[in-house]
Predict the 3D structure of the following.
Amino acid sequence: MILIDYRDTRPIYEQVVDRFKMLILRGVLHSDDKIPSVRNLAVDLSINPNTIQRAYAELEKQGYIYTVKGKGNFVSDKSQLMLKYREELFTELKLICKAAFDVGITQEEIVQSITEGK
């Protein structure tokens, strides 16, 4: 389910966060699905449980999971998450486009680059 890329320059907890976000947004994990415990996932990935705890805390902070005391961690409602994620992506896209415009790249060049990348 979750794979760690040790060549990736990002911290491991960020990789775990990103993997879970994609699993949730793609519908692999559904609303109210229980996710592995901190201990189980740490053992499966052979990493420190504190790393998983930090990832889960970040996922909860971002609204992707919620905790039920004594029961574990569960996936939040996907419909709201998808809207939030789209908003984040469009915000990043606007920043990138602004930077491109600032150095003289035209809107047509941006659109052409995106459509060629499909």
About this structure: The mean pLDDT is 93. DSSP finds five helices and two strands in the chain. The helical segments are 12-25, 38-45, 49-61, 78-102, 107-116. The CA atoms of residues 24 and 30 lie 6 Å apart.
